[in-house]
Every structure is written in structure tokens, then in C-alpha cells.
Amino acid sequence: MTSIATNTDTTKPNTNSTSTAKTPAKLSSGISEEVITELSREINNMLSFAIFNGITVNTDVNSLIQNSNVDDLINAHNLLCKNVAPATPKSIVYTKKLNKDSNGKSIFRKLPLLRNLILLALFFLVTYVITGMSPEVNNDSLDKGMMDNSGISLLLNIGYLSSVAGLGVLFFLLKEVSLSLKKGSLIPENAIGYLSQIILGVIAGLIMSEIISFYTQDPKQINLFNKSILALVGGFSSDAIFSILQGIIDKIKGIFISPNTIK
């Protein structure tokens, strides 16, 4: 009998495991490079804006910019912010973008905010003319006010006073936008603030012309001219009306609430 010997090769598995040492992630301490780059960019933008508009720049900025120290860059940034005020780095970038995108574009396409304000002013002006031409809007109907008037006459009178208040607030906002463009202090977020200010102006005009006029001695003296003036002043000075009402509320709260009360 022939015995067949089978040689079984036993190969040992390689037990040499490569150990991967975990290196801890480096934590960036201090100001990041992105912030430093943005700081340098804003300094250059403010310098360019000041030179272009003939604004006097503090000469200490030059020595601070030469050093790459973060403290010096922050000090230079603070000095330039004071020099270019009321403009800010954000408004300067926005103004530069408007000037750069002005190739073949009208002012209304470059600045939608100005276009929208002019369209709203035309809307209030047309509403003022149409409601003013109506026979329902006269001295007698305005003297009645909201309490004694009703129907179409009340709607037309409220539309008339609201349009006058809207013209007042837009007169103020258009002037403010033109000044902001000259000073370079216009930012995109102003569009949201202007919208709320228009609504507050219309409300303030109605408050001035309808609610405050109730407390006069002789209601017959409140004619078309007086109520129109009150609505116009209320729309133009909506911030002042809000401050006055807020001051009255604070005085009333001060009577009932002790200053030492812990909330």
C-alpha cells in the first residue's frame, strides 16, 4: 500500500496590525485668517472711499497698517470708521457695487428701493387727487370723523387722509434716501425699515387727524385744511409720534411700577 502523505502548509496570519495614532485636531486660537482678511479688505475700502470723497483721514492709520499685527489693524479700522462716518464698511461695499453695476442701467434699475418709493409716492398722489375730487370729501364729512360717518363717504375720507399721511412719510423717506446716497450710508436692509416706516406714517397720520382732533374744544374748527395738515405732519414725523406715545406709556408705567421692582 502506498501511503500518500499530504503536506499541509499552515500559514500563520500576519498579526502585525498597523496602529493608527490619532492626532488631535488643532484648535485655532484667536482671530481666524478669514476675519483678518476681511478686516484688511474693509480698511482698503474705507481708505479708497475717504480718498475719493475728499474725507480727511487720520495719519496714524498709515503706521498702523504697515504692521501686520491684529491689534494695529483693529485700531486702524476703528479710526477709519470714525473718519468715514456716517458711512460704514457695509454701506461702502454696497455703494461700490451700485457704481460698478451702473453700466447701461438707469437709476431705477440700479436702486430698486428708490424706484419703489417713487412709485408709492405716485400712488399716494393719485389717491389724494381722486379722493379730493370726490364730492363726498369736504369740510362737513371730515368734521364728522370716523364716529359719525359711514359708507362710501367714510371710506373716501379715510383714503384721503391716508394718502396725505403717505405723502408726508414718503416726502421724508425720499429726502433721507438722497442724503444717504450722498453720504454713502445706504445699506440693503433699509428697504425693510422704510416699509415699516411707511405703514407707521400712515397710522400716525390717521391718529393725528382723527383721534387727537377729538380732544379739541370746538370740533367745527377742524376743517379740511387742519385735518390735512395733521395727517401730513403725522406721516412726516411718525418717529416723533411714536416717541411721544412711548414716553407717555413709560410715565404711566412709572407711576404703578416701582423702580426697585425685580422682574
Structure keywords:
263 residues; mainly alpha; 2 domains; 11 helices; 67% helix; elongated
Concise overview:
This protein is mainly α and 263 residues long. The chain has helices spanning 33-52, 60-66, 70-84, 89-100, 107-110, 112-133, 139-148, 151-183, 190-211, 224-236, 238-256.
Q: How much of the polypeptide forms β-strand, as a percent range?
A: under 5%
Number of domains as seen in the coordinates: 2
The largest β sheet comes out as: none
Q: How many β-strands, per DSSP?
A: 0
* Average predicted confidence as pLDDT: 78
Order of helices and strands: HHHHHHHHHHH
Question: Could you walk me through the main structural features you see in this protein, from its secondary elements to its overall organization?
Answer:
With 263 residues, this protein is an all-alpha fold. It folds into 2 domains: 33-85, no CATH class; 107-253, no CATH class. 67% of the residues lie in helices and 0% in strands. The chain is built from 11 helices and no strands. The chain has helices spanning 33-52, 60-66, 70-84, 89-100, 107-110, 112-133, 139-148, 151-183, 190-211, 224-236, 238-256. α9 (190-211) runs antiparallel to α10. The longest helix has 33 residues, at 151-183.
